[in-house]
């Protein structure tokens, strides 16, 4: 599974504590928006509906801040250790396009391939 995000431009390494404060501010803002909500769905900059109770990360953090959030979530046990961030494209004006994905264990990949082959053999 993977998600793709657009990050803010930023060239300096971020402080994990500052990143968490930024996330907390975003959560508070979203909670206030839900209180003020008139029952109509909210949409992000790309036109996708933001589900109630979800925090839109897209465009709110730099690439380094996203990496910090991933590390914190892994440390807290929210995300597995095999989740990582890859930069797909970089732009100093618009920020990076990144993908957050779970790397598949090579042994698990082999097992899936063997299972797929066994199923194929059974169907023939």
How would you sum up this structure, described in words?
This protein has 124 residues and is α+β, with helices and mostly antiparallel strands. It has one domain (2-123). 42% of the residues lie in helices and 18% in strands. A 3-stranded antiparallel sheet has the order 1-5-4, covered by helices on one side. A hairpin with a 7-residue loop joins strand 4 (83-89) and strand 5 (97-102). The longest helix has 21 residues, at 16-36.
Question: Short description, anyone?
Answer:
The protein is of the alpha+beta class and 124 residues long. 42% of the residues lie in helices and 18% in strands. The chain has one domain.
Structural class: alpha+beta
Distance between the termini: 30 Å
- E-strand count: 5
Question: For the report, how would you describe the main beta sheet?
Answer: 3 strands, antiparallel
Shape: extended
Region (Disordered): 1-56, 100-124
Biased composition (Basic and acidic residues): 19-42
Biased composition (Polar residues): 1-17
